[in-house]
Design a protein that fits this description.
By secondary structure, the chain is mainly beta. It has helices spanning 37-40, 170-180; strands spanning 5-9, 17-21, 23-26, 29-32, 50-56, 61-66, 71-78, 80-87, 98-104, 110-113, 117-123, 129-136, 148-149. The protein is globular. 31% of the residues are buried.
């Protein structure tokens, strides 16, 4: 199986990359590679140091969270999500602009986010979704206390989630409440 990738830079947010791997299918199922340093390493100035998975139920919205030092490679390994990236670089000409992608276990798209990007996803599949992300950063792990958060319904950003009452974390509920005051 050839490890080939289609790589496209976002037309909206500079520095965000959409990666589509080559998939091999046969009667057993599918196989694909999400990352190789040899083929994709030039996109990232650091090595990945942490992999995470989250499983979320239908109608869960996670985010908009980010930090100032982490690179993230995200995808949906099972189910279907609406993946959203928000440019949170205050000096950027695309500050608070966003882009979204439908990602599923069918299309295997991966999104590479540089630091200062807000990362969020909404679970569209009735049986939930398994979200996978790799992190690259220097120093210590960036925990929630070191991250920034924007309200999922921040009117300055204006994301069309296609839903008005998602399931949110306490953190996201609090930020949305503060945003509406």
């Amino acid at each position: 199986m050839a490890m080939e990738f289609e790589i496209e830079e976002s037309k909206i947010i500079k520095g965000v990359y959409i990666i589509t791997p080559n998939k091999f299918s046969d009667l057993r199922g599918d196989i694909w590679t999400a990352w190789t340093k040899k083929h994709l390493g030039d996109l990232l100035p650091l090595d990945f140091v942490l992999d995470k998975f989250t499983f979320s139920h239908f109608n869960v919205l996670r985010g908009i969270h980010g930090d100032h030092k982490s690179w993230k490679l995200v995808t949906c390994a099972y189910g279907e999500i609406l993946q959203v990236v928000v440019d949170c670089r205050k000096d950027s000409p695309t500050y608070l602009k966003w882009q979204s992608w439908d990602i599923s276990s069918e299309n295997q798209k991966l999104i590479l986010l540089p630091p200062n990007m807000g990362n969020a996803c909404y679970v569209k599949s009735k049986n939930g979704a398994l979200y996978f992300y790799k992190w690259a950063y220097e120093g210590e792990y960036v925990d929630a206390k070191d991250q920034f958060t924007y309200a999922w319904n921040d009117e300055r950003i204006g994301i069309d989630w296609g839903v008005s009452n998602p399931i949110l974390s306490e953190r996201d509920i609090l930020v949305a409440k503060e945003n509406n005051e």
